[in-house]
Please model this.
Amino acid sequence: MWRPPQRIAFEPARGRMPSRDEARASLLFSRVGVGPLELEQRTWIPAMVPWRATEDGFVTDDVIDWYSRFARGRPGAIVIEATGIRDVPSGPLLRIGHDRFIPGLQRLTAAIREASGGHTKALIQIIDFLSIRRRPERGKFIRQFLRVDAQHKQALGDAQMSDEVARDRLEALPDAELDRLLSARDRESLRFGHRERVTDTQFEHIRNLPQALPGLFADAAARAKAAGFDGVELHYAHAYTMASFLSRRNTREDGYGQTLEGRARLPLETIAAVRAAVGRDYALGCRFLAEECIDGGSTVDDAAYFGAAFARAGLDFLSTSRGGKFEDAKQPGVGAAAYPYTGPSGYECMPQYISDERGPFGRNIDATKRIRAAVRAAGFSTPVVCTGGVHNFEMAEAMLREGACDIVGSARQSLADPDWFLKLSEGAGDEIRLCEFTNYCEGLDQKHKSVTCQLWDKIGVGAPGVRTTPDGRRRMTPPEWRPSRTDAT
Ligand SMILES: Cc1cc2nc3c(=O)[nH]c(=O)nc-3n(C[C@H](O)[C@H](O)[C@H](O)COP(=O)(O)O)c2cc1C
Ligand code: SF4
Model:
């Protein structure tokens, strides 16, 4: 993963721990409405893919164990990982693109309800993404993937040569020469693997995304409702299709790009279609980027416009993230796919403890505060969720008090200790396992390995009843909390 060149090491702090009474009287542990839902507290575990689904996208016992474990910490809400809306193979990512996925998801919502004693709301993040190929070997790229055209042949000195001869000649060229003959897009496909973009309107399936996506999202949301989820989060963030429509880099010329209105059009049409499918009495929100954090990408002013537009369109919550784009991702090794969290924008999304002067904690607070202010100025009270580096009570409470957000998201701190909210509310904050923001978990995610945390995945390995990864080395879920204090329940 990319790290800021300043290389300043930050240490997460426990901060001042509240007593049980103080915690219970705090903003963090106060109720909040999210459309038709009421969360018991303003704590929120945002989507995190743990790589526990089957190869064909079904819920497994490991998925159930994972989310049940988080539910036992009783956060206000848990958002289930990015779940694919299409009925196409996508590796061990959860899927919701067909009714056959509903029974497994039903098991999941029932498990969360039971494990949290009905205290936690379960939402699901639904996603569309375009295809990306692995970085090819040079020879394979030239032989199989490159579309040889007249310009290549002209540059090789004979416009009449066969494609076969052109490929032979291209393959024999030194790298620098080959680079000169390839278009920028082909050079990228060679170095990073071919990646579809929403601007590839020369392809019918990309041109027709505005016709296809509202229905796909609406059907997926209807399945989520049928499976018993309390709400749906549309994934409009990071490197995926909807975020690419919202991006300043979206130059589509068909009314779905270029201007702010054009870029927001498909996301808004999708909201309307989903709303029609799930009805007004169902919690619907989206996750989108406060800032894209790439050259020429969307800024917080764009996000403020989108936030107000989404609120006007009737979303029940807005959740922000930042960065996480392909445009500045690291070059993958041959045979591997580019990963959108490996460059500077990836750092903004999941900053680790080695940082710049701003540090890794709360990098999205200022931008989210501006978006929330714009939503309020437009006359909407839509709750806003802010995530990023939150790891102690003081920080979370200050974010709420200072108007950055209405709900506090915490991903990695909750992974390190899914009971951390419970411990705070019970006055047992000194028992919290504090996330070190090393991104060990993120490294596993990148390799599509079962995500675990280095602070707990070796504890009790080999003990009866402790499920481990197939290699037997890591436990799959955090150990249970056994309160050492009598006032903790
Ligand atoms: C292992 C892992 C998987 C993630 N998967 C998702 C995802 O499916 N959808 C999403 O919007 N964000 C995802 N994220 C980003 C988190 O939701 C969150 O925005 C990010 O980790 C920063 O918050 P934190 O500092 O509280 O961890 C993931 C993060 C991690 C560490
Ligand atoms: S592995 Fe654990 S300690 Fe490290 S960043 Fe992830 S959650 Fe935090």
Q: What stands out?
A: The mean pLDDT is 96. The chain has 19 helices and twelve strands. The first helix runs from residue 20 to 24.
